[in-house]
Amino acid sequence: MIYSYPTPVGTFVIRPQRTDPGRVELWVGNECFGSYFSAGMAASDVYARVTGFYDWDSATHLSASEDLAEWQRHT
To answer: Where are the alpha helices (DSSP H) in 4-70?
Structure first.
């Protein structure tokens, strides 16, 4: 399952890790910002602004949902 969440500074994408299908990765554009045990953990980091993506992490005036039900699902 792939999830995406558009923001003014870029679209976050959570997708399966190619080398370990039991994990997911968090991407913005062509850059991977982390590997996680679950999509929920990745969404939580986006919500908490601890992704490693400076433009997002420092944008305190922007917000994202921690709830994957509010992210776009792609099959």
So the answer is: 39-48, 54-57
Question: Rounded to 5 degrees, what angle do the CA atoms 50, 63, 33 make?
Answer: 30
Helix (H, G, I), strand (E, B) or coil at 4: strand
Alpha helices in the chain (DSSP H): 39-48, 54-57
SS3 1: coil
Which amino acid type is present at position 70?
E
Under the banding of pLDDT at 50, 70 and 90, the label for residue 75 is confident
Q: What is the pLDDT of residues 6-15, one digit of tens each?
A: 999 999 999 9
Q: What is the pTM of this model?
A: 0.94
**Distances from the Cα of 3 to the Cαs of 6, 13, 35, 57, 65, in angstroms?**
10, 6, 14, 19, 12
